Amino acid sequence: MKILVLNSGSSSIKFKFFNMTNNECIASGLVEEIGTANSRAEIFVTKNDRKLELNDQSIQNHNEGIDVVNYLLKETEVLNSLDEIDGVGHRIVQGADYFDKAVLVDDDVIEKIRELCPLAPLHNPANLAGILSSLEHKPDLPNVAVFDTVFHQTMPEHVYMYALPYEFYTEYKVRRYGAHGTSHGYVANAGAKFLGIDNDKFNCITLHLGNGSSVTAVKDGKCYDTSMGLTPLEGLIMGTRCGSIDPAIIPYMERVAGFDAQQMDTIMNKKSGLLGISGTSDLRKVTQMMEDGDKLAKLAFDMLVYRIIKTIGEYYAVLGRVDAIIFTAGIGENAANLREAVCKKLEHMGISIDLELNNKREKDIRDISTKDAKIKTLIIPTNEELAIAIETQRLISK
């Protein structure tokens, strides 16, 4: 079975093409700067290391973007026709409490995804555009929606509710939903297998750290709590997002500086976080600036590390027993200095890492704990696209 996975952003389409016989990624690529005259696209074919790039294109919408994806797959001989694709899996950021599992796309699913756009205005409209474009190209091809929020649907009510008037929840769906659920679920399951622990008895804290970051407390293999909330703004400090702040800052800044709610929303999502403190959202640059003596870069790094440590401590208290902490995603997998800084402050909890193992750059799952560590520290490369492909295969095989 061959599955195409699409992750459609507001101006981009990331894609991977899988042969599910052995869960092999045959090709991957992206289309970006959709809606401009300077669009570009590329594909990388795994088996022969072939790369094809298209530059200075005019790709005006996601429908044209899917045309380009199909062209790249055919031009590199990954497939000869669309008939070779058995199904398409889509990453959907917000499923709210409508969806507690991945689903085959039908008219009702499309309408619910559309209805939830106000909860994820930067993501759901683009995700939906990918679905509609895929269906327009081949209406009879099964499409599957896999929601980032599904893994977090096991949170208890007292965990996901906000202490606001209850009608905010019943009338406006205001509650904590979380994000990155496909990634958290994937690495938690992989961690249990790696350590030889039954998934339904596995307690861990997963750290998806990238430009967007979140932490999840996993109890008996299921999400018990997660750091993101109604939107991906809550929780950790991120590349451009401030994370959790005193909400009274918003009306305060309106009174003293004239910023309205929309301006503050933009500032909190796009001009804060590492960028707001240090001037860059790239942790690699923050690290270099720190080494060059930049005090604000050091402050940004220390703030990020502290927020991660505090969240791990909270979740340790909630779980009672932790078998492992798991680092994943771009920063989690690659920033050895951040892992070291976090784990050094957690030694009193039984977390201890081997610095030599921590500094090695490898692509596979690995244990970087010292031999006497009471809690394992793992690095597990996330593979959200494979998780989506597996769910897609499962649904269309029924």
Summarize the structure.
Helices cover 39% and strands 21% of the residues. With 398 residues, the protein is of the alpha/beta class.
Write structural notes for this entry.
The protein is α/β, with parallel strands linked by helices and 398 residues long. It folds into two domains: 2-147, ATPase, nucleotide binding domain (Nucleotidyltransferase, domain 5, 2-Layer Sandwich); 198-384, ATPase, nucleotide binding domain (Nucleotidyltransferase, domain 5), CATH 3.30.420.40. The chain contains 15 helices and 14 strands. Strand 3 (24-32) and strand 4 form a beta hairpin. Helix 1 packs across helix 3. The chain is globular and about 55 Å long. The model has no long low-confidence stretch (mean pLDDT 93).
Task: Give the topology.
Blueprint: E1 2-8, E2 12-19, E3 24-32, E4 36-45, E5 50-59, H1 62-75, E6 87-92, E7 103-104, H2 107-115, H3 124-137, E8 143-147, H4 157-160, H5 166-172, H6 181-195, E9 204-208, E10 214-219, E11 222-226, H7 249-257, H8 261-270, H9 273-278, H10 283-291, H11 295-319, E12 324-328, H12 329-334, H13 336-344, H14 355-359, E13 366-367, E14 376-379, H15 384-396
Parallel strand pairs: 1-6, 6-8, 9-12, 12-14
Antiparallel strand pairs: 1-2, 2-3, 3-4, 4-5, 7-8, 9-10, 10-11, 13-14
Helix pairs in contact: 1-3, 10-11, 11-13
